[in-house]
Every structure is written in structure tokens, then in C-alpha cells.
């Protein structure tokens, strides 16, 4: 049975999501931020005959995330998505959302698949001593963070000052960085932070300063602080070479994440 979720389901929902806090990071964060009654957000749950929650789907505006532990009623969830004339994006763990590929969703869109890896405290390899120490960014550093990201060709253009300001003010994003002569030369950030987990994004170094381990300095400082708060860290990557950098810190692949847009 699939039905809308509400505040009365919260304990059961969070218990289900906590089983895989990394894969469910976005859903957990959006529930904590916006709850069950927002105009721009809805949640549905699938329950088995014993009343156990076995799948959750989140709608944030016109983007959907599906999470399932098995027995997913693909057609039932697809019917909900197909009723949204503004449907834009579907994402989730590959083994879950690939079930929607067989012409179930109207205009599913282009597929992007990335590696998904996770870091927990017991796996963390605290990195070696560095000559430079990473600094924690404040709201006064937002312009410099944006400027640094704009110089990285592989980054998207989703680096607006207003968006970053909102995320830092709300506590769902933080950044550690290195500077030289007043110029920010490397950084690593989190996004979508919630009470259980955080996503690492924006790991970058200016071209003239690469191959010096500067991104690793920022990553180590970030990992130290976030893991010290009892949270799990996770990230996406597409390039296996980039993946090796993260694995030196103790990150391990736990699956793949697909986005259909």
C-alpha cells in the first residue's frame, strides 16, 4: 500500500531512513528542514502487509527521490510522478531507480550515473601532518568561495552567492579552505547536512596550485570536524582517479547513484 506520509509517521519514517543514512541523506535533510506539510514538498510511503515501511518517495518541487529496501511498487510510484506535469528529475540508488526505466515514467530524461561512497568514523584515516593549516570559512568568505568555484571548469554554474549564503546561514553547508597572499586557492565543502549525515561537494584547487595535496588538507579538516559531530560523510564521484584521493581518507564505495533529468 502506498499513501501520503504525515507527522504521525515521523518516528517510523526516520527509523527507516536511518538504516542507510548516506543514501537517504537528501530525504532526511528535507524532512528536517521542511516537514510534511509544505506546499513544495510531499512524501509517500509504501507499507507491506505487516505495516512495515519498505519504500519512501520525496517530491521537492518537481524533483523526486525514491528509497526502497525491497518490494517496490514501481507502477504505483510512477503513477504519482506521471501526474506531475512539471516533473523534472528522478534520482536515487541505481538498483532502485533503474526499475523506472522501462517506459514507466513519461519522458524520464537523460541518465547520469555516479559512484557513491561513504566515510564513517571507524574507517577514517586521519591524514599526515601538513605544512599548511585549513581555515574554516565564515559568511564573509562567500564571495571568495564562489570566485574559486567559478574558476574550476568541471563545476556547474550552480554557485550563486545567494544560494551559498542561505545554506551556510541555515547550517547545512560549511567550507574549509587554504589561501595564499589573500587568495583562496583550495577548498572543500559540505551540503545537505542533517542530524545524521553530510554530503561533500566543491573539492577543488586552482590550476596553478595543484599536485601539492592542498585539497587533501581541506578534506582532512572537514572530515575531522564533521565526523567529530557523529555524522556520516558521503560524496559522489565520476572519475576513478578522483575516487582514489577520497579512498586514501577511508571512503569506500557503497553503490551508485543515478539521476534522470
TrEMBL record:
Q: InterPro entries in the record, alphabetically?
A: Acyl_CoA_acyltransferase, GNAT_acetyltra_YdfB-like, GNAT_dom
Describe the location of the N-acetyltransferase domain by residue ranges. Answer: 132-261
The protein's superkingdom reads Bacteria
Which Pfam family, an example, fits this chain? GNAT_acetyltran
* Protein name per UniProt: GNAT family acetyltransferase
